[in-house]
Specification:
It is built from twelve helices and no strands. The chain has helices at residues 3-18, 21-32, 38-64, 70-89, 110-114, 121-152, 156-207, 211-216, 218-223, 226-235, 242-273, 281-302. The longest helix is centred in the middle third of the chain and has 52 residues, at 156-207. It is a multi-pass membrane protein. One of its GO terms (cellular component) is membrane.
């Protein structure tokens, strides 16, 4: 194996082991922010990460024009700055009563960590809803470029323009709109609203005949992002073992990235090869999957004590 490729593989392995900053931020929010404002806090966190993903690739491409390794040096410097910011300004939170626990070998077992999602029926059902949601979302993302290139002959500019507008709309919803939506409809209402927006948008995308309609779907797709924020807020109601809970949710999210893309890419491949199949069938399937979240959430809320 080429040494450069080997080092890149090692760096990705190390990133996978240590790169759970978002999970730690979610845990901190669940402990530091009162429940009525937790969805908004998760929304602001989503804005921060969204802006990072929006600015980072562009900046990396710009820096690579000067020197190939410069983006990696900039990333290293950014991590050091983030560490200093956390060390200086982020305050410790007093331990929740009864949450003190010495780390054991069994705690390092990922399967044991996932048991925290089965601690109550309510937690298990909401975690299942989160898994279903993330599977459909990652499945959507995995075929988007191929679908728009195949059906609408989009070029790189159109794909980039769509993603830029979508990213800006999502940042606006998570940073501004989520505060008013949660205040008006509550977490449960926002979950149902997000499901409705996603189902309708995916049905429209499946049958859209021109790109103008696709761009119109950006509004409901961005509004749908209030649902996972509200789901996570509901899962954070129990103050005990938040680190384990959010770590398990992070693992569950990564598992969904295996299931969702495998399903939608297979369906898309078969749909474009078969003359009787519709190329938008993967998005119809995603609409059905999103719709499955509603009864799971409803059952969890109705039987929650």
């Amino acid at each position: 194996m080429n040494m450069g490729l080997f080092l890149i593989a090692c760096s990705k392995l190390l990133t996978g082991v240590t790169g759970h900053l978002r999970m730690l931020c979610n845990t901190y929010i669940s402990d530091a922010v009162e429940s009525s404002k937790r969805s908004q806090a998760y929304g602001m966190l989503g804005v921060a990460f969204g802006l990072g993903f929006f600015v980072g690739p562009t900046l990396g491409a710009f820096l690579s024009n000067y020197y190939r390794s410069l983006p990696f040096a900039f990333s290293f410097a950014s991590q050091i700055i983030a560490l200093l910011i956390c060390r200086i300004w982020v305050k410790d939170i007093p331990h929740v009563t009864g949450s003190e626990h010495l780390l054991t070998i069994s705690d390092l077992n990922p399967l044991n960590a996932l048991k925290s999602l089965t601690s109550t029926r309510y937690t298990f059902l909401l975690a299942a809803a989160m898994f279903v949601w993330e599977a459909a979302t990652t499945g959507h993302h995995s075929i988007w470029v191929h679908y728009t290139s195949h059906r609408y002959q989009w070029d790189n500019f159109q794909i980039g323009l769509y993603m830029t507008v979508m990213g800006a709309a999502t940042v606006f919803v998570q940073g501004v709109m989520v505060h008013y939506l949660v205040k008006e409809f509550g977490d449960t209402g926002c979950i149902y609203m997000g499901i409705t927006c996603n189902v309708l948008a995916h049905i429209v995308i499946a049958y859209a005949q021109n790109t103008n309609v696709i761009f119109m779907c950006i509004l409901p797709l961005s509004l749908s992002q209030v649902a996972p924020l509200s789901l996570r807020s509901q899962l954070s109601q129990d103050k005990s073992k938040q680190g384990t809970l959010h770590g398990s949710l992070s693992s569950l999210q990564r598992m969904s990235k295996v299931v969702g893309p495998l399903f939608t890419t297979t369906l898309f491949m078969r749909s474009i090869k078969s003359p009787t199949s519709h190329p938008g069938s993967p998005f119809l399937a995603c609409a059905v999957i999103y719709l499955m979240v509603a009864p799971i959430v409803r059952y969890a809320i109705n039987h929650h004590k």
